[in-house]
């Protein structure tokens, strides 16, 4: 019988950061399709700033996971990244697009994909 043991935050943060480009690719595909369907023309530089805000989650999580509780660090990192994406797109495109499509896509492709790493064997 193997007793349950707490997750080691170091390898978990490394695994989440390793799959960051996959999540970003899905998020960009989502954003591109939504922009095409709604007739929104985003400059490629906007995608660069979105990538920086998206990767803020991984950087902040990697640095805070050793100092804070695992779930607290995860929630803080997710909230900061979603706030950065929404606050930038609010200025670049509009509040409705930023709050609905961008934040919803980021919650699915960043937060939920990263949260799947907490469940061993369910990351795909």
Query: Radius of gyration in whole Å, from Cα?
Result: 16 Å
What is the H/E order? Answer: HHHHH
Largest sheet: none
| Helical fraction | over 70%
Instruction: Kindly report how far apart the N and C termini lie.
Output: 26 Å
Described by the principal axes of the CA atoms, the overall outline is: elongated
Q: What's the number of helices?
A: 5
Q: Which regions contain 5 or more consecutive residues with pLDDT less than 50?
A: none
SS content category? mainly alpha
Number of E strands: 0
* Percent of sequence in beta strands: under 5%
Mean pLDDT: 90
Short description, anyone?
The protein is mostly helical and 124 residues long. The chain has helices at 9-18, 20-38, 44-64, 70-92, 95-115.
3D structure, described in words:
By secondary structure, the chain is mostly helical. The model has no long low-confidence stretch (mean pLDDT 90). The protein has five helices and no strands. The chain is elongated and about 55 Å long.
Task: Describe the protein's topology.
Elements: H1 9-18, H2 20-38, H3 44-64, H4 70-92, H5 95-115
Quick tags:
124 residues, mainly alpha, elongated
